[in-house]
Amino acid sequence: MSIQPVSQPVHPALQKHAEERRGSLQNRVADAITRFAGSLPFIYLHIVWFALWIGLRVEKFPFGLLTMMVSLEAIFLSTFVMISQNRADAKREVFADHQWMLVQAEEAQNEELLTLSRQILDLTREIHRMSTPAPSAGSAPPGGPVGGPR
Predict the structure, then answer these.
(1) Among 12, 36, 32, CA closest to 22
(2) How far apart are CA 89 and CA 68, in angstroms?
(3) What is the pLDDT of residues 3-38, one digit of tens each?
(4) Do the Cβ atoms of 3 and 45 come closer than 8 Å?
(5) Are the C-beta atoms of 3 and 40 separated by less than 8 Å?
(6) Which of 74, 89, 81, 96 is nearest to 21 (CA)?
């Protein structure tokens, strides 16, 4: 039985966020507790603990002390669940901010490409105009007279 190892994020923005998070002892402790509380070994430990408590008759039924300890544990675990949710929200925010910056950079790049495309089109038209002989005053352009028959 082992607790799942901490997986390293692949995304650079999330890697930076994880490094900053590891800088605080409180965050490392909260992450370790949350990781353990969300694992099967945590369940197995409680099964053994409850079985021993009841089997060794540490106290008589209705197990007031056990109930109080489990209630206190539930309070703390719910706090760690909220801490975990806050951590997940912070990661989503970091990722969303990074994605927004990428979208903005892509938008600027698209605008630049559109400007360059317009310039290329203008240059192509100018080259075409310069390379095509101008029609003489008495001759009709290729394809018939302007305006055509009515």
Answers:
(1) 32
(2) 32
(3) 556 667 677 777 787 787 778 888 888 888 888 988
(4) no
(5) no
(6) 89
